[in-house]
Amino acid sequence: MSIHMSYLKREHARLDAEIERASRERRPDEILIARLKTLKLAVKDQMAACRESSGDSRAA
């Protein structure tokens, strides 16, 4: 696994944890959560692009 892919997986997990934390707040910041979800989706897209370029077609 490439260093870049490792970074993307860690970033995806970090964003997921941050979304969970923000969602558990007494008054969740819906705008922040939406931004985090957008970033998480962008990271997932980058992971898919890396897989395609390396010839690995496994799902995320």
From TrEMBL:
Gene3D superfamilies: 6.10.280.50. Pfam families: DUF465 (PF04325). InterPro entries: DUF465, DUF465_sf. This is YdcH family protein. It comes from Sphingomonas colocasiae.
